[in-house]
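HUMAN: Can I see a protein plus its fold?

ASSISTANT:
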Amino acid sequence: MPNNDPTLQEGIADQLAHDAHYLGTDGDGATHYWSCYERTVYVVEDNEVDSWAFAETPLSTLTDWLTHVETKRGPWDDHRVSTGGIATIIAGHSTTECV
């Protein structure tokens, strides 16, 4: 009989917004995703997902979030932020805000 239980990755993906993009891995090993439409950051740590809607924080931009995380958790281990698509990434011009 087939097992229809979701995998851990599928369970995590179900908790992220449909447009969530990988931001990077912070100094403590948590993985961050950003939803431009939801204006929410999702943090995956120890197989748990926490979400931080900017409307509910004192932060107003993604740059504020990145700086806040670096201050609290140390330098980013892996940091990839771009809203301009693959061409922007290849050209090396990335932005941290929704356009």
